Fold this sequence. Notes:
Domain Putative restriction endonuclease: 10-183
Number of strands: 12
Largest sheet: 6 strands, mixed
Helix content: 25-40%
Structural class: alpha+beta
Strand order of the largest sheet: 4-7-9-10-11-12
Shape: globular
Protein name: Uma2 family endonuclease
Pfam families: Uma2
CATH superfamily: tt1808, chain A
GO molecular function: endonuclease activity
Keywords: Endonuclease, Hydrolase, Nuclease
Amino acid sequence: xxxxxxxxxxxxxxxxxxxxxxxxxxxxxxxxxxxxxxxxxxxxxxxxxxxxxxxxxxxxxxxxxxxxxxxxxxxxxxxxxxxxxxxxxxxxxxxxxxxxxxxxxxxxxxxxxxxxxxxxxxxxxxxxxxxxxxxxxxxxxxxxxxxxxxxxxxxxxxxxxxxxxxxxxxxxxxxxxxxxxxxxxxxxx
Length: 189
């Protein structure tokens, strides 16, 4: 990851452009480049995007490019998949940016596909989990090709409650009862 420049606020971050398609996380005032996704993760995300789009409509599902303003550090995340609330597409039109700000309700669901490596596991299972919980995101799914499991985290009054699905178990979502893919289907690229 390459540190690029120093910015003070999330507004500065949203206004910043280096003329590339690179994605950055704003961490302690510095832009840190987010590496590109592996092809396997992109294929898995596309399959889940299609399945979720069949449930909520394609305008409410975003892959890889939607920034979420977050508490703590970094100040933003780019989930592999984000399912927006019904009002979000219209709110995003007015922003000119693909970003969910603090003054907007949190998205309904975020999904992270774990990339290989202990550092990525820590980010998805601990760091992002904490930030998504603090942000009040009702559901967070962790799709882990290495462990061959899908973890569904549902927000309760006591924080996230988790259920792990493997192999031919149909992944059960409290928010999306129409979801019908098994863990194996979600993990196949």
